[in-house]
Design a protein that fits this description.
alpha+beta
Length: about 170
C-alpha cells in the first residue's frame, strides 16, 4: 500500500499509482474540497481488485500539534481501556450495512446556510437497497421511493440513519 498526501490528486495520478504492484492506496481525504470523491470512484472502476482506504481523518486528541480532535476510538493505555466515540457509530452505518460489491444507485445532497441533508442509496450484492441519511438540520420526514413503493422515514435532527429495503426488480 502507498499513501497519497497533501497533493491535488488527479484521476491520472491515482490511475498511475494503482498500476503499480500494490494492493491499494491510502488517500488522506481531508482534501476532498480540492479533489472530489468522483476522482476516487472513477479510478476504482478501472481497478476493482484494489482497495482505496480513506485515511488521516482523525488522530484522537490531543495530537502531535496539541490539537484536540475526534477519533472513532480513543485508547487510554495507562488505564487499560478504550472509548468508542460517536464517530465510531456513524462510520458503522456504512461499514456494517454496505458490503463490498455494493453499487451506488443514487446520491442526494441539499444544503442551506446552517444545515444539510445528504443521503446515499446502494444496491447490495444480496439484492437489498441500503439508504444512509445524514441530517444536520431539524427533524424531517423523508420519502424513500423504490419502484412503485414509498417508505416514509422519520429522520431525527442531527442524526445519521440507515434503512435497508428488499430490492424487487
Amino acid at each position: 500500500m502507498t499513501v497519497i498526501d497533501g497533493v491535488d490528486v488527479t484521476l491520472t495520478a491515482v490511475t498511475a499509482i494503482l498500476q503499480l504492484p500494490l494492493d491499494g492506496v491510502g488517500l488522506h481525504y481531508y482534501t476532498d474540497f480540492i479533489t472530489p470523491a468522483e476522482v476516487q470512484v472513477e479510478a476504482m472502476k478501472s481497478f476493482p481488485s484494489k482497495f482505496l482506504l480513506n485515511t488521516e481523518s482523525c488522530e484522537g486528541g490531543p495530537n502531535w500539534d496539541k490539537n484536540f480532535v475526534d477519533s472513532p476510538i480513543t485508547v487510554f493505555p495507562e488505564h487499560n481501556e478504550f472509548h468508542k466515540q460517536p464517530m465510531y457509530y456513524a462510520m458503522g452505518h456504512f461499514s456494517k450495512f454496505i458490503p463490498r460489491g455494493s453499487k451506488i444507485i443514487r446520491r442526494v445532497q441539499t444544503k442551506s446556510m446552517f444545515t444539510s441533508f445528504e443521503s446515499v442509496a446502494v444496491l447490495t450484492p444480496e439484492s437489498t437497497v441500503v439508504v444512509v441519511m445524514y441530517n444536520t438540520g431539524s427533524a424531517r420526514t423523508v420519502n424513500v421511493k423504490l419502484g412503485n413503493k414509498v417508505a416514509s422515514i422519520h429522520c431525527p435532527g442531527a442524526a445519521v440513519i440507515t434503512v435497508e429495503l428488499p430490492y424487487e426488480p
